[in-house]
Each structure stands twice: as C-alpha cells, then as structure tokens.
Amino acid sequence: MQPSTSPTRFAYLGPEGTFAEAALSSAVDTGGGTRTPRPSVPATLAAVRSGDADAGLVPLENSVEGSVPATMDGLADGDPLIITREVFLPVAFTLAVRPGTTLDAVRSVASHPHALAQTGRWLETNLPGITPLPASSTAAAAAAVAAGEHDAAVCAAIAAERYGLEALADDIADHAGAVTRFVLVSRPGPLPAPTGNDKTSLVAVVGDRTGALLDLLREFAARGISLTRIESRPTRQRLGVYSFSLDCEGHIADRRVGEALAALHRVCEDVRFLGSYPRADGRQNCPVPAESADDAFAEAGDWLDRVRSGAV
Ligand SMILES: O=C(O)C(=O)Cc1ccccc1
C-alpha cells in the first residue's frame, strides 16, 4: 500500500454521511487523494479488487452486534485483499425524519442491520409496531428517507444534516459506548512495517475431523501468541464445513507469527492471510514469552544448523 500521504484513491462504504466515511476521515490522511463512496460493502471491495480504487474502508465488527458478515465473507472469498489499517470509531445513533414529521407519524424505519439491532429496544419502546427495514448503510437509509421512501432513518447526526433531515431523537443506542471497528484494505503488496504492537488477521478452513480446531489453536498457544478474535463462518460449501476468522497479536514478520502461520498452512485445509497492521484499539499486545521472541528463534535456528552440519 502507498503511504496514506501519497495520492491514493480511497473507496468507502457510502453514500456520504456513513460511519465508514467518518472513520476514514478520523484516521487516514487522504492527502491529495480522492474519496469515492460506494453503494455497499461488496461494491467497495470490488472497486479495490478491480483497481478502480487503491484502498477501501469497510466496517468489520461492532462491540455490541459482532461481525459484519458482508465484510467477513467478502474478505474470505474472491481475489485476495489485505488489511493495512484498523480504525475504531465510537458510534452514536440519531433518529432522523423529514422536517415536520412527528414521532407518532413514523411507520417505517430504515438503517444498516447493525444500527437497527443496536437501537432495537429504543425503537420497540418508542415506535411500537413499526417495521424496521434493512439498508446497505445508515446514510443510504437517510437518503431514502429524504427521497420519501421511508419515514425515518437510524443514522449518524452528520447524515441527518447531509440529507436535510431533522433529528427526532439523539443517542438512541440501547448500549452506550458502542464502538465499531473498520478496516482499510488494499490489493496485496508490501505490508505495513512492524511497529511492535501489531495484529495479524487470517481465515483458516479446518478439516472435518476430531480436534481440528484444537490443532489450529495449539499452533498459536505453543508460540506464545494471544488471539484477539476468533469466530466461525460457514464456508458455503456444505453444512458442517466451517472456516475460522481470527486476529492474533503480532506481525507476520515476527518469527513466532510467521512460524504459526506456516504451521497452519500444514495442518489446515486452507489458510488465507488477511494482513498485519498496527494495533489501533489503544491496547498493548501481551508480553511475548522469552522463548517465543525473535532472538530465541534465531538462536535455536543457529543451533539446528550447527547440529545438522555435524559441528556439535
Ligand atoms: O452504515 C454505516 O454508516 C456504516 O458505516 C456501517 C455501520 C453501521 C452501523 C454501525 C456502525 C457502522
């Protein structure tokens, strides 16, 4: 990936006014580059894959609602893409309507499924019996309300403003303090340099056999690598065959992480590397046990070379 200061064509989950746009602005210096909203997560990833964009910003998971399937599956399948950055954004939801609409006139509410899920209790309490309608993004819902397609949208305050809507209520999330994790993805290329506080993401397909998941986990545990996320996703081949999407601490340039991934390559049916990038959640990686540090691997490698050459 080019450094974020060089002209880069950025794509993001649009239209204008999404949380994805806010995440891009908050964390990436788009410099002299361009930012183009795309209508969906698959369209954002497709723009990067086709070369229409150099990098794409999409939501990956939320602290309340969990992962965003379109992103998880979009990264697991298709031409490889790699994550070069993660961005965390606190999200606050507004109920937005066309000016003059009152709460008792609202019959339909649209938003991204994650936003509807995170405001479900508020909506049930304040708008009993309404129909929540899924949209490709919170801002797409706001635009649809402005166009008269729905009565209200759950969106960012900035989206209400952008589409000429009025906020009927602010901060309507059921759980205060929700945070969404976004990722910036690029076509495979030079990896971000290790910073000493990095994460690595991958998807591994394990065989349908006893202990397959344990074998996968063992490769990390044996090398003193802490996982920060793991979840199973259907492979869509047949019921019962799963892939595991996970993040671990460390950079693939770290010996322990490289060796763990190489071991997974041996024990799993398929492994897709999804990138090594600076950790951005404000937390520090767990201390690396002395026997798992790079110099311990280097020293052990030297010893093996000596033994193999008959020197010891
Ligand atoms: O729809 C958006 O604005 C997004 O960026 C995706 C999203 C949806 C709900 C919570 C956080 C991010």
Automatic annotation (TrEMBL):
Q: Kind of enzyme, top EC level?
A: lyase
Name the Pfam families for this protein.
Answer: ACT, PDT
Q: For the site Essential for prephenate dehydratase activity, which positions are given? A: 180
Pathway it works in: Amino-acid biosynthesis; L-phenylalanine biosynthesis; phenylpyruvate from prephenate: step 1/1
Annotated GO biological processes are:
L-phenylalanine biosynthetic process
Which part of the chain is the ACT domain?
A: 201-278
Gene Ontology cellular component? cytoplasm
Instruction: Name the catalysed reactions.
Output: prephenate + H(+) = 3-phenylpyruvate + CO2 + H2O
Prephenate dehydratase domain span = 9-187
Q: Keywords, A to Z?
A: Amino-acid biosynthesis, Aromatic amino acid biosynthesis, Lyase, Phenylalanine biosynthesis
Spell out the molecular function terms from Gene Ontology: prephenate dehydratase activity
EC?
4.2.1.51
Asked whether the keyword Amino-acid biosynthesis is assigned, the reply is yes
What NCBIfam families does this protein's entry cite? Answer: PRK11898.1
Provide the protein name.
Answer: Prephenate dehydratase
